[in-house]
């Protein structure tokens, strides 16, 4: 019952923030005109709503939902509340592959697939390193993330400078890299929706097996979970979700970390509840953060990644201090 | 008659061989305590018995079937393991932890049957956890958490129960209480139990058999009264221990 009310509340929050995302913008459009524009009236309002605001809201929802779900999966697998696609370097791996694909001339369907491949390589490296860790796993994972992220930063800079194709659109590419959802096309959305649906589907099917990882991979095995297959599947779902998010919005930090962690205390640690709740809450949170990104310095816009970083980084530090006391 | 039988198992980690042709048999209704000095291979033998470590030669058989041929899901319906790690940073409730014991019997999408729910409630009652069932596991004391994890293994409803130092976080009276409970369960339900234990006296008072390990094999496997002798203790554990008698039973004491 409690679970149901929380999920219902999250759906309502998502609908409300989406409405805010469509109503708020540099050009003031009244609610009546917004409704008319949504259902096909032509003119400037129609273009603004249908081609700019709606894809932006849907994009932000997909990115936030994917990152929060990927964060829940990674935290469950690594038994570590300090993991998400951003801090583990998974998003960085996806970024590198996406930038390389764009430099080589790839477009809509190829870029997210490249991002998925990059995320898969990065998250697999992180998992292998965590396996070596023992009791210092929390720190190993974070260090792996730092190393991957700075390595990728260097390579991305190299690619940006050396590629004529990217140099022409440097401003747009940099805006995307810093976590922007401002220029998302319907084509990109369609591809991302398919990838996110697949990732979320896997995540929901894997949820009860992930619970068995509560006391480690070996105990998951004695409880009847095939650890190799399940781990591979969880890493794959994480990569699908992180790859789609990066292809849409570049590096958006901390959503994947904060949302599942906060939700665990409201809805419990069981992944069958945590995963759908994370998707809904992540979607609502990022749509709202994007509204903030448009309003704070209006009429100028911030990349949404700047907002999540402002809110998420202090939260992360607080968590790190607490977990140092508990774990290490 | 369920038996778990390690036959001439040689196993280790990479190039380091820990078990050398190690043999041990556990039958229903027995509580076998695996004892021995540090590095003798006790935990490694338990991991081999659980199917977590594959022997490089020899085999572990459950009722004559090599467990290496069984799927994880099938194995988890026959053998339960109480892990040594039982701390988690996540706020699972005690009931949710106990329910993890049913993982191997859930539907494809994790649906629990009425039977699953009943097994969870039984395990909660058996371990006197009813008052704690809705509490968060990360907020319990070490002893309460240990009981919750034992309940998780009982909810698996297996014939074989393997425990790796189940008393390591408990004070002496809770150690006795925990082992007495395990022994009662073994007798009442006809479980085959093997437990790695450090405390020789605790092992001798609670186990039906002691398997003494040294150098990666079982060097002595008999009733506690037979095993605990001054000679064997000196041979296996080295000097510094003496054997005395208390209430007609042999007791191991440190020699100052």
Task: Please tell me about this protein's structure.
The complex is a heterodimer of chains A (328) and B (256). Chain A has 328 residues and is mainly α. Chain A has helices at 2-23, 31-38, 44-78, 90-103, 110-133, 137-162, 164-167, 170-177, 186-211, 217-222, 227-249, 255-267, 271-295, 304-326. In chain A, helix 1 (2-23) runs antiparallel to helix 3 (44-78). The mean pLDDT of chain A is 87. Chain B has 256 residues and is of the alpha/beta class. Chain B is built from 9 helices and 12 strands. In chain B, the strands form 3 sheets. Chain B has a 6-stranded mixed β-sheet with strand order 6-7-8-3-9-10, sandwiched between helices. A 4-stranded antiparallel β-sheet of chain B has the order 2-1-4-5, with helices on one face. In chain B, a hairpin with a 2-residue loop joins strand 9 (209-214) and strand 10. The termini of chain B are far apart.
Helix content of chain A: over 70%
Average residue pLDDT of chain A: 87
Assembly annotation: heterodimer
Helix content of chain B: 25-40%
Main sheet: strands, sense, barrel of chain B = 6 strands, mixed
N- to C-terminal separation of chain B?
46 Å
Specify the structural class of chain A: mainly alpha
Query: Nearest-angstrom radius of gyration of chain A?
Result: 19 Å
The DSSP helix count of chain A reads 14
**What is the N-to-C succession of helices and strands of chain A?**
HHHHHHHHHHHHHH
Strand order of the largest sheet of chain B: 6-7-8-3-9-10
Major sheet characteristics of chain A: none
Short description:
Chain A is mainly α.
Structural topology:
The complex is a heterodimer of chains A (328) and B (256).
Chain A lengths: L1 H22 L7 H8 L5 H35 L11 H14 L6 H24 L3 H26 L1 H4 L2 H8 L8 H26 L5 H6 L4 H23 L5 H13 L3 H25 L8 H23 L2
Chain B lengths: L2 E11 L2 E12 L3 E5 L6 H8 L7 E6 L2 E2 L5 H5 L2 E4 L11 H6 L14 H13 L15 H14 L4 E5 L7 H18 L2 E5 L3 H7 L2 E6 L2 E6 L1 H4 L2 H8 L3 E6 L2 E6 L2
Parallel strand pairs in B: 3-8, 3-9, 6-7, 7-8
Antiparallel strand pairs in B: 1-2, 1-4, 4-5, 9-10, 11-12
Helix pairs in contact in B: 4-5
């Amino acid at each position: 019952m409690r679970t149901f009310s929380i999920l219902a509340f999250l759906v309502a929050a998502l609908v409300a923030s989406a409405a805010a995302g469509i109503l708020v913008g540099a050009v003031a459009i009244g609610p009546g005109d917004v409704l008319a524009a949504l259902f096909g009236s032509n003119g400037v309002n129609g273009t603004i709503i249908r081609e700019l605001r709606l894809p932006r809201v849907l994009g932000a929802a997909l990115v936030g939902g994917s990152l929060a779900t990927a964060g829940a999966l990674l935290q469950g697998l690594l038994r570590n509340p300090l993991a998400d696609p951003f801090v583990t370097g998974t998003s960085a791996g996806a970024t590198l592959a996406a930038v390389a694909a764009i430099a080589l001339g790839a477009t809509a369907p190829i870029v997210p697939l490249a991002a998925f491949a990059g995320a898969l390589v990065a998250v697999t490296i992180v998992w292998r390193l965590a396996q070596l860790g023992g009791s210092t796993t929390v720190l190993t994972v974070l260090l792996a993330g730092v190393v991957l992220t700075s390595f990728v930063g260097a390579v991305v800079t190299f690619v940006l400078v050396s590629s004529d194709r990217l140099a022409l659109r440097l401003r747009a590419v940099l805006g995307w890299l810093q976590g922007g959802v401002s220029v998302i096309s319907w084509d990109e959305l369609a591809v991302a929706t398919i990838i996110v649906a697949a990732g979320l589907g896997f995540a929901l099917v894997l949820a009860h097996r992930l619970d068995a990882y509560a006391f480690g991979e070996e105990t998951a095995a004695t409880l009847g979970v095939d650890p190799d297959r399940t781990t591979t599947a969880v890493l794959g779902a994480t990569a699908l979700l992180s790859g789609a998010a990066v292809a849409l919005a570049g590096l958006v930090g901390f959503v994947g970390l904060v949302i599942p962690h906060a939700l665990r205390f409201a809805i419990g640690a069981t992944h069958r509840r945590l995963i759908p709740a994370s998707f809904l809450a992540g979607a609502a949170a990022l749509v709202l953060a994007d509204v903030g990104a448009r309003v704070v310095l209006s009429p100028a816009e911030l990349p949404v990644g700047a907002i999540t970083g402002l809110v998420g980084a202090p939260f992360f530090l607080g968590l790190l201090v607490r977990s140092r006391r508990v774990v290490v | 008659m369920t038996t778990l039988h390690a036959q001439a198992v040689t196993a280790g980690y990479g190039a380091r061989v820990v078990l050398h042709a190690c043999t041990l048999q556990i039958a229903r209704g027995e509580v076998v305590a695996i004892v021995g000095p540090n590095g003798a291979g006790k935990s490694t033998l338990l991991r081999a018995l659980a199917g977590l470590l594959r022997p490089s030669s020899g085999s572990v058989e459950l009722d004559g079937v090599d467990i290496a041929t069984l799927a994880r899901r099938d194995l988890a319906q026959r053998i339960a393991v109480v892990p040594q790690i039982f701390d988690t940073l996540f706020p699972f409730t005690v009931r949710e932890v106990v329910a993890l014991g049913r993982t191997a019997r859930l539907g494809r999408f994790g649906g629990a049957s009425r039977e699953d729910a009943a097994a969870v409630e039984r395990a909660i009652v058996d371990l006197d956890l009813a008052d704690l069932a809705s509490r968060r596991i990360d907020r319990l004391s070490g002893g309460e958490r240990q009981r919750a994890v034992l309940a998780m293994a009982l909810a698996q409803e297996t014939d074989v129960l393997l425990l790796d130092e189940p008393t390591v976080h408990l004070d002496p009276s809770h150690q006795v209480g925990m082992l007495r409970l395990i022994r009662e369960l073994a007798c009442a339900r006809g479980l085959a139990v093997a437990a790695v234990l450090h405390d020789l006296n605790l092992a001798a008072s609670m186990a039906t058999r002691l398997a003494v390990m040294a150098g990666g094999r079982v060097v002595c496997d008999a009733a506690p009264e037979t095993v605990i002798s001054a000679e064997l203790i000196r041979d296996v554990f080295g000097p510094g221990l003496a054997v005395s008698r208390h209430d007609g039973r042999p007791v191991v004491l440190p020699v100052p």
